[in-house]
Design brief:
Helix content is 5%, strand content 56%. It is mainly beta and 154 residues long.
Length: 154
């Protein structure tokens, strides 16, 4: 099976939302970042019937993240559009932002066909502010470095 193309070894399907919550991050400059990770679709091994504990399942997931910033008036700046791409922004002057308070939640999803449930959590490693850059609403432009953790939801 190892030489078989990924799509031939797996079923592709969407997931149903059981529960999704916003993560919140309060930054040292007073900004509040809200983020919601979204589990979009799965490539699921054809030989695995359902989620069980104690067994690793080699599946692939497709995720999206929605991020928004809420600020007080004193952080507002004149929009600098278009905003740089993440690659361009990574080459610009940035300021590391300490996260002073965070709430990260597990989101839960139902797999079709009685396969069970998975939970997804977004974990933020760090946040940087791109100095002098502001979005269309005048919010500072932040880059959020994060990863996803997926586990059975039994």
């Amino acid at each position: 099976m190892k030489g078989t193309p990924l799509r031939e070894r797996n079923d592709e399907f969407g997931v149903e939302i059981v529960e999704e919550k916003w993560n919140t991050y309060e930054l040292e400059d007073g900004a509040r970042v809200r983020a919601r990770p979204i589990f979009v679709k799965v490539l699921w091994p054809k030989d695995v019937e359902k989620v069980t504990t104690g067994k690793n399942i080699d599946f692939r997931g497709s995720f999206q993240t929605v991020i928004t910033t809420i600020i007080d008036k004193e952080l507002e700046g004149e929009p600098t559009l278009p905003l740089p791409s993440f690659t361009e922004a990574g080459k610009m002057k940035t300021t590391n932002m300490r996260v002073v308070k965070s709430e990260e939640h597990w989101n839960t999803y139902e797999l079709p066909g009685g396969r069970g449930r998975l939970k997804l959590k977004m974990v933020v490693a760090n946040v940087v502010k791109v100095d002098g850059k502001f979005d269309e609403n005048g919010c500072p432009f932040y880059l959020v470095n994060s990863s996803f953790v997926v586990a059975p939801a039994l």
